[in-house]
Amino acid sequence: MNLLKIAWRNLWRNRRRTIITASSILFAVFFVILMRSFQLGTYGHMIKLSIESYMGFLQVQHEDYLDDMTIDNSFESNIELIGQLDKMPGIKAVVPRLETFALASTGDQTKGVAVVGVDPGRELNLSNPNGRLVQYRVTPAAIEKLKEYGLPEKLLKKLSVLKNSSFVSSDGLRAGIKMSDTEAEKYLPVILEQCSFNNNPLVTGDDGVLVSDRLAKFLQLTLGDTLILMGQGYQGATAAGLYPVRGIIKIPAPDLDNKLIYMDINKARELYNLEGRVTSIAINLHDNSDQNMLKTKNKILAMVGNDHKTVKTWKEFNKVLLQQIQSDNQSGKLILGLLYFIVFFGIFGTVLMMIHERKREFGILVSIGMKRYKLAVITMFEMMFMGLIGVFSGIVLSLPLLYLGHEYPIRFTGDMARIMEDMGFDAVMPLEWVDMYVLWQGLIVAFMVILSCLYPLRKVFSLKEVEALRA
Amino acid sequence: MSVIDIKNVVKIYNDSEVKVHAVNGISLTIDEGEFTAIVGPSGSGKTTLLNMLGGLDHPTAGEIYVGGTNIGTLKGSKLIDFRLHNIGFVFQSYNLIPVLTAKENVEFIMQMQKVPSKIREARTRELLTQVGLGDRLDSRPAKLSGGQQQRVAVARALASKPKYILADEPTANLDSKSTENLLDIMEKLNREEKITFIFSTHDARVMKKARRVITVEDGKVIRDERKTN
Ligand SMILES: Nc1ncnc2c1ncn2[C@@H]1O[C@H](COP(=O)(O)OP(=O)(O)OP(=O)(O)O)[C@@H](O)[C@H]1O
Ligand SMILES: [Mg+2]
Questions:
Q1: Which of B56, B112, B160 sits opposite A465 (nearest CB)?
Q2: Nearest chain A Cα to B112, which residue?
Q3: To test ligand 1's pocket by mutation, which of B9, B13, B91, B222 has the most ligand atoms within 8 angstroms of CB?
Q4: Contact residues on chain B for A360, CB-CB shorter than 8 A
Q5: Which tens digits make up the pLDDT trace of A177-212?
Q6: What is the tens place of the pLDDT at every residue in A113-172?
Q7: 3-state secondary structure chain B
Q8: Which residue's CA is the closest to the ligand 1 atom numbered 16?
Q9: I need a labelling partner for B125 at 20 to 30 A (CA). Which of A269, A348, A386, B172 fits?
Q10: Residue B200, min C-alpha distance to chain A (Å)
Q11: pLDDT digits (tens, 9 = 90+) for B121-171
């Protein structure tokens, strides 16, 4: 009879208690995995939104740019450098940019804005502003028209809540109105028709600009209006120009949506007197692991030389996001700790009870010649089995949810969405698919089992035969 | 030839306010092949004496020699190993590991002694047949009657080929038929295989079967009778 077999059979002596203890482990693991998955999924999404589809995982910058983000800390970029970067293996996108500030004015209104000069062709691979053009807008005129058309009162009410909202896709508009299938079938085409919004993309060498939705509303701009941009050019030169509005774009990050203007990079260079210069070259990678990011950073560093240029990872140039993730991660781990604390006491109590109940049996076993450590091993195996059953079923139970939440992220609508957007989040809740973190839960519970066995097992080692026999 | 030499053994419990002289100066010699009952009123010190003979408890004073070894000087895993190889135990009740079958309960002890599995299996079968349970090899204790469980315990105690078997009131929880049956088996093993048995009892019928009856009172031997048959 090996000890494992005895432990396994012992496990089922008190079937109900085993099931209860294993279930408590199961639920803890289940919730922990779900919570972790949600956290990691959210971080992934945040990184995707602001790093992967805007800033890039790496940036080539002037060495002083991070400390002082002005165009005076720009650098000369040329076709050779871009070409060399393009050719480096593992690099997905190379996107030169000229980012700075300006005062935007329409005569009546003036506002400080962020100006991004881009190469429209290359920008397709990163922030792709042309893909964010507003396609539909619920204008007051459109609502009037739809009223004449005989739209039901209920729908009109929902539409008026969305007055002046913009959407980049028909799905977005439909989700915004929260239409039922039958309503959509009947009325969506006419709503789309009335709300459709004509927009033009930014092309290479374009004279015009793309204006973010909220900014456009603030400045009361419509297509074809002219915008005055004023600012300070390279080394103190004055910069001013007139730009027609080509299109209006909607940015998922609300703070950016309040202030963003895209223009052709060469036009921006003309405006700011910055011929041939950029403030950054954003780079995206095929493999976004920290390890690869650092490796590529060093390769690029070696390539650009020390011509006052440097290469930064997103963790260096977006410390705010990094800290936001880290602090959320800390508080998340605190909750995990609490859950595991409960698991710990669950197991602890079970072991204690078990050892108490079997005192006489242990006494007999030691009397007839069994070493105490073997009893400890059996008890430990028993608790390990219990832990494994709990962990394993917890993982299995969480898998379908992880899969669903990963493949079909929950998208908030209505007030919840607005609250999240006001806080600067995109209103989606994606879940992270299975990864190392799932395995970690197993290891942590195993560790908990060992930890919670320590004290009770001391009792086994100090067991006095005569006393145990009288139990 | 003597198996156990007990010399002036004293056991004092002083964990309560009054000191209890549970065993108060006992000297005895147990010879090979004895079938000995220890009797006496409740609280007279029978269990205390047997526990010390089994190396489960240490005497406060005096020595107990088993085959030349003073077992009072053994400690820890040395003592456990000594018990495993030299002493067989039958307790009053719940002797067996509940999750193991009769066969496994007997085999288990030989496994701890590292007996090769072939020999182990054959001996297990033989022993359980000897105690009349050749047809219950695969039953767990819960499926056996109290008497059957005690017989498995006897088989287990024999399995390790001990120098002697100690049984503290082995029949206390059995009805008269099972009591007689168990004693017959013990007696038969004693006669045919020269197994030394030392058991305590309150039961007059059990006493009658013994060939030597040691009576204790207040921790002292007051009578030591041998029957010649
Ligand atoms: N662990 C202990 N602590 C204190 N006193 C004890 C302890 N064990 C036994 N005693 C005392 O020692 C004396 C002898 O007890 P023991 O159990 O040996 O008697 P016994 O002859 O086996 O009695 P019974 O026939 O009831 O089983 C009793 O007075 C008992 O109270
Ligand atoms: Mg007793």
A1: B56
A2: A370
A3: B13
A4: 94
A5: 878 888 888 888 889 999 998 889 999 999 999 999
A6: 999 999 999 998 888 899 889 999 988 888 888 888 888 888 888 888 888 888 888 888
A7: CEEEEEEEEEEEECCCCCCEEEEEEEEEEEECCCEEEEECCCCCCHHHHHHHHCCCCCCCEEEEEECCEEHHHCCHHHHHHHHHHHEEEECCCCCCCCCCCHHHHHHHHHHHCCCCHHHHHHHHHHHHHHCCCCCCCCCCHHHCCHHHHHHHHHHHHHHCCCCEEEEECCCCCCCHHHHHHHHHHHHHHHHHHCCCEEEECCCHHHHHHCCEEEEEECCEEEEEEECCC
A8: B45
A9: B172
A10: 16
A11: 999 999 999 999 999 999 999 999 999 999 999 999 999 999 999 999 999
Q: Is the minimum distance from the CB of B228 to ligand 1 under 6 angstroms?
A: no
Q: What is the CATH number of domain B2-226?
A: 3.40.50.300
Residue type, A327: S
Structure tokens at A424: 């600067």
Quote the ipTM score: 0.93
Domain boundaries, chain B: 2-226
Supply the mean pLDDT for chain A. 88
Ligand 2 ion local residues (Cβ < 5 A): B 46-47
In short, whether B135's Cβ falls inside 6 Å of ligand 1 is no
How many Å lie between the centroid of ligand 2 and the Cα of residue B225?
21
CA of B215 to the centre of ligand 2 (A): 13
The residue of chain A with its CA nearest to that of B104 is: A1
